[in-house]
Amino acid sequence: MAKIVGVCISDRKGIPKKNVGSAYLEAGLGIKEDAHSGPWHRQISLLANEAIDTMRQKGYELVEGSFAENLTTEGIDLKNLPIGTELKVGASVRLKITQIGKECHTKCAIFRKVGECIMPLEGIFAEVLESGTVKVGDIIEVT
Q: Does the pLDDT value for residue 20 go beyond 90?
């Protein structure tokens, strides 16, 4: 069963995010308190905990949000979801996948600290279609 294991925010781009446990996701915007919120196609970033585990096995001490993802997931193969896939998270939030991976134009704080970044290959991005609160433990369904 797919679920949320981290809900993370930061006030600046390019730095690790802090797991705050829950947040309100606003349709067309993202998480207001997060540096990446706004009316664009990358309102929310998602990264699988399984991908982070591969980095932990290399000896890095990493937690949810270390790669600046908003939602850390478990039990879902994010990087293989097609663009346009919709996800229901928790009781009411609906997300639509808009981008798989990203190009890093500069070496962010995460890359400088860890030596590599998995978001360009493993991270996905989404728009918020329906608002609501997301919290650690919420179930994720592909709709």
A: yes
